[in-house]
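One record is kept unedited as follows:
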Amino acid sequence: MKKIVIIGAGFAGLACAASLRPKIRKLNLEVCVISDKDEFSFLPLLPDCLGRRIATGSLIYNIRSFSKKLRFKFINDKVERIDLDKKLIFTNGLNYSYDFLVVASGSETNFYGNDQIRRFAFKLDDAKDAALMYNALEEKDYDSYLVAGGGYTGVEIATNLSVYLKRKKLDRRVVIIERAPQILGQIPGWMRDYVLTNLKELRVEVLTGVSVNTAESAKVGLSNQLVFDNSMLIWAAGVKTSDFIQSLSLEKNPQGRIKVDKCLRFRDNCFAAGDASLFDFKSSPLRMAVQFAIMQGRCIGRNIVNNIERKELIEYKPVDLGFIIPMANNKSCGVVLGFNMKGFLPTLMHYFMCIFRSYDFKNKFWIVKNLLQKGG
């Protein structure tokens, strides 16, 4: 029996497990998925729990239910470290051996070692975080809402906060704080200009070249000496891979993403997918995106089977459908199949793909119902 261990039950990990399912009996495979979470959260729609009031319950999937459908063994535990030489995975007091290893543990909010900010800032790593954030919006009346990080997620959160406040008829400040000279630094100029115009229309302020220095309860101090009292701080200033990856002696980028080859391997019989992998594409690292995570997971599953059957491994060839920056007032923008898009159409396409990629009919139904009934 060949033992395959997949660390992580996100888009990449589940796609890999699904691709292995048809071969489990034929090749006598044991597929184990290890995750410290017992639920899978549909990450692309988490910001919409704030502005569009999508119920967090419609974005949650029980991993044990997946394990029955996909016929993998689910281990609800946190990976502490991996011994690649001995092919052992260590969790809290236990260890697991493997013949093939798939690291698909995704990414998490990076607080850059600042425990003070970690303690007082909200984050958006899963549906539970979204519920905590929404409950805080409902229960507390802040004077300002500060979003640290001017990337895709920061912009999404800020626009949803603006829509939320407008619906509540509250005149409050929403501010994006970005330490770089500009927000959305890697996107085309026309798109950044469009986003900035839309943020201004939504009355979202943008402060660039500034960072958060201190956070204590509801008081936040910036590097430019500006202080916000009675403020809600939301941290979207970057992500990193899990701690067990950080400790591995492998080639990684500053986020901790593992450098992989054309077949998504970082060592013999060891693969990495999704946010945990660093794959070179057109002379630059392939960006983190759901579409790539799913396809990488499937490619790794096929390569594990090929390895067992002594067939040649296939190379992962990214198919880039494009990307969209969804904004909560339906004035989104993006590049889809090489075409520049603005306004409602990219918004519609974003939600169509989210509904399409949802795993269960019940969840699809509730997402659609939430969008139609609650101002989607």
The first strand starts at residue 2 and ends at 7. The two ends are 49 Å apart (CA to CA).
